[in-house]
TrEMBL record:
Residues engaged in binding dUMP: 21, 176-177, 216-219, 227, 257-259
The protein, known as: Thymidylate synthase
Residue span, Thymidylate synthase/dCMP hydroxymethylase domain: 2-314
Function description: Catalyzes the reductive methylation of 2'-deoxyuridine-5'-monophosphate (dUMP) to 2'-deoxythymidine-5'-monophosphate (dTMP) while utilizing 5,10-methylenetetrahydrofolate (mTHF) as the methyl donor and reductant in the reaction, yielding dihydrofolate (DHF) as a by-product. This enzymatic reaction provides an intracellular de novo source of dTMP, an essential precursor for DNA biosynthesis.
Species name: Planococcus koreensis
Gene: thyA
Lineage: Bacteria, Bacillati, Bacillota, Bacilli, Bacillales
């Protein structure tokens, strides 16, 4: 993972100072690419502990076409909670303390952070236990899973892009059209968060499956380690489904940035040396990619440096 650390150094030394949607501020470069040979090990960050279970459960959520945080919260995965929470606290039904600008204030105001934590726990309980609440406030709109599995057509039908690309790889491996896109301009305003990783393409050569992802916006410290591992896992799962070995994961990013409140953490990570990459193990042989559960996927030999905490910019 030296290339990831080199990217962090590059941004620290060469990044342009930019404002952003969250109001946090970033150091940013435009256009970057990394390549990972998946046969050499699974690219899960070793210079800080990264939660593979969260990565796997989120990816399976996408693959199943789900867009509601209830499924994730049941798995104790809270990656998407803030975006659903915003829908509740900005609604007429919400009657608790003012949660305006909670993403920033929860990281800078201890008194507000305690109120925010309390309201988030109430929200999570309502999602899991209150009839109709998850349907109203837990759904994030037509985000990744919807576009991957049920892209809306003008005639009212839908396109299952993921199933179609698997069929295409099996039937016509040399095709240059093995593409899935999550960027659907018609529905961007209906999404809680427009997709950051917007398009991926598969490539077959010498019995190996490679994948290239284009990501329009990349949070290098918090998000990028998840994105790398998620699409590496997707490549493994699609290769398994198509009876192929794994090739490369090629990761191409547009606005590639470090948030201004992550710089101390990045510098701490840069003092650490990478360790050996772990191995991916899929314990279930009979299930298709659409039937796999989190417990069917595991990582072996993962011995990372300790976790480094940092605030999420919402």
């Amino acid at each position: 993972m030296e290339q990831y650390l080199d990217l962090c150094k590059h941004i620290l030394h060469n990044g342009a100072s930019k404002e952003d949607r969250t109001g946090t501020g970033t150091l940013s470069v435009f256009g970057h690419q990394m390549r990972f040979d998946l046969a050499e090990g699974f690219p899960l960050m070793t210079t800080k502990k990264t939660a593979f279970r969260l990565i796997a459960s989120e990816l399976l959520w996408f693959i199943k076409g789900d867009t509601n945080v209830k499924s994730l919260i049941k798995e104790n995965n809270h990656i998407w909670d803030e975006w659903a929470f915003a829908q509740w606290v900005e609604s007429a039904e919400y009657s608790g303390p003012d949660m305006a600008d909670f993403g920033r204030k929860a990281n800078t105001d201890e008194e507000f952070a305690a109120l925010y934590k309390e309201q988030m726990l109430i929200f999570q309980d309502k999602i899991l236990n209150e009839t109709g609440f998850a349907e109203t406030y837990g759904d994030l709109g037509p985000v990744y899973g919807k576009q991957w599995r049920s892209w809306a057509k003008t005639d009212g039908d839908t396109i299952d892009q993921l199933k179609n690309v698997i069929d295409s790889i099996k039937k016509n491996p040399d095709s240059r059209r093995h593409i899935v896109t999550a960027w659907n301009p018609e529905f961007i305003e209906d999404m809680a968060l427009p997709p950051c990783h917007i398009m991926f393409q598969f490539y077959v050569a010498d019995g190996k499956l490679s994948c290239q992802l284009y990501q329009r916006s990349a949070d290098v410290f918090l998000g990028m380690p998840f994105n790398i591992a998620s699409y590496a896992l997707l490549t493994h799962l699609i290769a398994r489904e198509c009876s192929l070995a794994v090739g490369d994961f090629v990761y191409t990013t547009g606005d590639t940035h470090l948030y201004s409140n992550h710089l101390e953490q990045v510098n701490e990570q840069l003092t650490r040396s990478p360790k050996a990459l772990p191995t991916l193990v899929i314990t279930e042989d009979e299930k298709s990619i659409f039937e796999l559960e989190v417990e069917d996927i595991a990582i072996e030999g993962y011995d990372p440096h300790p976790r480094i905490k940092a605030p999420v910019a919402v």
